Amino acid sequence: MGTQPQPVSRWPLIGRDSELQAFTRAWAQRQCHGIVICGPAGVGKSRLAEECLARAARQGWRTRRVTASAAAAQVPLGAIAHLIPPGTDLSDPVKGFATVATALAGPQHDSHWAIWVDDLHQIDATSAVLLRQLLDARVIRLIATVRTGESLAEAVDALTSNDQVQRIELATFNQQQAQAVLDAALGGPVSRRTLQQLYAASGGNALYLHELVLGVLASGELASDGEIWELTGERPAGTPKLAELITARLATARPTARPVLDLLSLAEPLSLAEAQQVTPPDVLAELEQAGLIQVTTSRRRTTLQLAHPLYGETLRAHIPALRQRTLLQQQANRTQAHGARRHNDPLRLATWQLAATGTADPQLLIQAAGLARHAHDYQQAVTLLEALPEPHHTTDSKVLLGEAYYELGQVELAQSFLAKAADSAATDGDRLAIAMEHCQTLLWGAARIDEALAVNDAARADITDPGMRHALTINEGAMRVTAGQLQNGLDLLTDVEAFPEERVRLYGMALKAYALTCKGQTTRATRLAEHAYAEHVQADTRIVNQHSLSQIGPLSYAYQELGELRRARQVAEQGFTTALQIRAWQPAPGPASMLGRTLWLAGYATEARRAYAECVALIRDRHAIPALMRLATSGLAASSALLGDLDTAESTLEDMAKHPDIAFFPGEDRLGHAWLLAARGRLAEARNILAAAAQTAYQTGSLASEALLLTDVARLGGAKDVQHRLNEIAEQCDGAFAPARAHLAAALAADDPDQLLAAADEMEAIGADLIAAEAATQAARAWQRTGHARKAAAATQQAQACAARCPGVRTPLLTIAQTAAALTAREKEIALLAAAGTASKDIANTLHLSVRTVDNHLQHAYTKLGVTTRRELAHALGTTPTRRPV
Predict the structure, then answer these.
(1) pLDDT tens digits for range 458-509
(2) What is residue 543's predicted lDDT score, i.e. its pLDDT?
(3) Quick one: residue 16, left, alpha or beta (phi over 0 = left, psi -120 to 50 = alpha)?
């Protein structure tokens, strides 16, 4: 993995661009008296004010800071005493204030002061009056912070209500702002999962977020593998300072509010009626006014919950264990007394009873575990079912427990409970459910395809019902597609759309859509994938075997090969985000890997690297779908190579070799190795790797993977070798991408600028910006060579626009097009190898040439480029010299 990033000692001010722009605009106005930054506690008002003060100082303003406080407010002028010249007589306010104004203005009356008053709402009235007079006299300008919801003294209100004092409202961070802050503060990207956990815990409050990060860094729960920062725990713990802040915030509530606050911390949300049974209505109104609770009304039901996620943790920490049990039992009794009629009441009751007494009614536990599963809370399902006494376990409960363990990445435990379920199976329906779940666990949880197929065969031998035997045939077809036996699998999935049982039909449809895309039938695949996803979303509350997010991968893949990369990205991003939000760990790597692939095809290597890194982390840390690990690590290596980080690419490839290959996306796991070789200038070897990988794809019948790999052969100098085959593939495929790939190869082979520019237009329309930039660059080079300067300039402009969307990326077609315009193809290949630090003897062996021939070509390249050393050659070609072997 990459170099370990280091957190910064001082957090950057990020995500407040619009507020800073508002300050700049207001401050530039001649009539401006100042700005007031308003917002709730902890959102970063002081940090923003500090930056505003610094900007004023850079413009030549003299600056002072005033910190108001409740203690200083007890003494008139206590907060601003340091602004008052020694010996000033304030017994006569008019004369005294004039003295202060004169002193601040200076002897030439040309001093301009920017005064920052932090927590202006706490300043005393006399100080407020003096500041107002100084503002009116234009001796100072004000930069102040005010906490939202605080009552202001009349003098303070008069100070801030001036029309010439601009008000800036500062809200909590949204998730995108929080990500930008965390990435900058930690010196590297955070995973989406970690971002969501920290954001949910902090509620977007800047101060809380800061303290949470400090806490998990100190505890070691937040760590980077060199690629991405990941939380190891489920609930990030903050610092003692954070606990003190929240405790002080909660202490503002009167004692009579404590019962409902404690109960909310254990059993939120509460209905208004339940809350009023423990706390008077007027106290509840005060809590809402103070911002300690939130009240939500939906239809005829009004519910209450704590206003911030961290309030509950702080409250629970101060409730003794026996009192917690008492409160939970009382709440369970209240819910039962009202009939426990709501959909989620069985889950809440079982959870409360377990926590209060250590046991619960067996039927209630089974019912609650089913609800937990449908809420995707698999850990809760395990907790409930593990509390179920053994005599009360049923075949269904054992299957559910096996599925829950599989979703949590505990494959061995999953198989153990599925084996127990098999022992008690009494019907064909039981045997089918167990076999389907067991195959899922073996295939996706352990990448053991042969064992999964054997389980399927054994179940088919035991089941007599024809419909259920057909279900196992569909299951086999899906597994054979996964194993790279595309046509065999499609033959078994012929009539899957008409199969009556939902979970089998939808699982089979997902893999059929994938296989159709592989075979180039992208229009048909897209329609099937869209239908399957829509139907699966509707069936999600009924299906045990697969989550609807399992349809995201095939759908995104179909859009990719159809030539709609932007749509493919949107689908994958939404799917990945949803999976993390609902903590559906098993299906999450599917959308993550498809997001990485989409970004790779677009040429956005930095974003692809991040997506692949997150996919790798999920699989590694959550034991989720190890079958995708080779693809994810190869994608990570390829993206790193394109960005010039060859050490990371190499170490990632070493890790990839440890993981099994199940022929999913056949041959594409070789992309990382090929592009690492290409980054080192070893283009011939890279082309050989890609050609062999394309042959693997050809043998499985995956035209999509074969076309991708052959396109990269063309991009690395082998266009003439692959153009014929890419034309054949294009004739067999529908959609825009396959023909665009064939046109690109033909244009590169012909080195025809008109064809190259047309290919660039096609690729740009698809969203493949990097390939478009390469094609336009080659068109510009060809026109330069023939003296068409105006056309070359236009093509260069298009290339630069496309390349700008792929920051940091280096490919042979981009890096050497301008500087090596006069080099022959052989000279370019030798020059790239030499620039990468390869000795002439090794170049000769690689290209099957004599050392003298290599040196002659190299000398010609030196002469044409005006360089004399290999280091100068590397600089001229825009490559990274390295001597590390592959």
Answers:
(1) 999 999 999 999 999 999 999 999 999 999 999 999 999 999 988 899 999 9
(2) 46
(3) alpha
Which two three-digit tokens encode residue 290?
A: 């103070």
Q: In sequence order, what DSSP letters do the residues of 539-562 get, joined into one string?
A: HTTT-SS--GGGGHHHHHHHHHHH
Helices (H), 203-359: 206-219, 240-250, 258-267, 272-276, 281-289, 309-317, 321-337, 345-357
Spatial separation of the C-alpha atoms in residues 198 and 214, rounded to whole Å: 12
Q: How confident is the model at residue 886 (pLDDT cuts 50, 70, 90)?
A: very low
pTM comes to: 0.83
Residue type at 865? Answer: L
Residue type for position 12: P
List 114's β-bridge partners, or say none. Answer: 63, 141
What is the residue whose two structure tokens read 């042979």?
A: 812
> Average pLDDT for residues 821-835, to the nearest whole number?
76
Q: Tokens 């077809």 identify what position?
A: 477
Q: Which of 491, 502, 504, 489 is nearest to 459 (CA)?
A: 504
Question: 65 is written with which tokens?
Answer: 């800071």
Residues 85-101: pLDDT tens digits?
A: 776 766 676 777 777 77
How far lies 531's CA from each of 511, 538, 783, in Å? 13, 11, 47
Cβ 62 vs Cβ 113: under 8 Å: yes
Classify residue 152 as left (phi > 0), alpha (psi -120 to 50) or beta.
Answer: beta
Count the residues in the chain.
886
Nearest CA among 709, 744, 565, 650 for reference residue 1: 650
Give the Cα-Cα-Cα angle 533, 536, 537 (nearest 5 degrees). Answer: 90
Q: Which of 214, 280, 216, 224 is nearest to 253 (CA)?
A: 280
Whole-angstrom CA distances from 357 to 47, 324, 371 are: 48, 11, 21
Measured CA to CA, the distance from residue 47 to residue 18 in angstroms comes to 15
Judged by phi (left if over 0) then psi (alpha if -120 to 50, else beta), residue 663 lies in left
Give the pair of three-digit tokens for residue 193: 């999962």
In the numeric block, the tokens 């809420």 are attached to 375
| Distant-in-sequence, close-in-space partners of 163: CB < 8 Å, separation ≥ 6 | none
Determine the Cα–Cα distance for residues 491 and 106; give it in Å rounded to an integer: 91
**Among residues of the chain, what percentage have pLDDT more than 90?**
54
Question: For residue 621, what are the CA distances in angstroms to 161, 192, 410, 613, 629?
Answer: 54, 14, 11, 12, 12
Residue 85 and residue 286: Cα distance in Å, rounded? 44
Give, as one character, the DSSP assignment of residue 794: H
CA distance 264 to 283: 14
Contact 378, 408 (CB under 8 A): yes
CB-count exposure of residue 343 (10 Å: 0-12, 13-18, 19+)? exposed
CA–CA distance, 24 with 21 (Å, rounded to integer): 5
Q: Nearest Cα to 180, choosing from 197, 164, 161, 199? A: 199
The span from the CA of 88 to the CA of 72, in Å, is 19
Q: Which of 593, 626, 211 is nearest to 222 (CA)?
A: 211
CA 66 to mean position of chain CA atoms: 41
329-332-335 Cα angle (round to 5)? 155
Between the CA of residue 862 and those of 820, 837, 856, what are the distances in Å?
Answer: 10, 15, 10
d(CA 373, CA 388): 16
Q: What angle do CA 547, 552, 557 make, to 5 degrees?
A: 145
3-state class (DSSP) for residue 525: helix
CA 228/CA 182 separation, integer angstroms: 11
The 3-state secondary structure of 233-264 reads CCCCCCCHHHHHHHHHHHCCCCHHHHHHHHHH
Question: Which of 236, 192, 201 is CA-nearest to residue 585?
Answer: 192
From residue 612, alpha-carbon distances to 153, 185, 616, 629 in Å are: 55, 22, 6, 10
pLDDT at site 474: 97
Residue with tokens 């600089």: 875
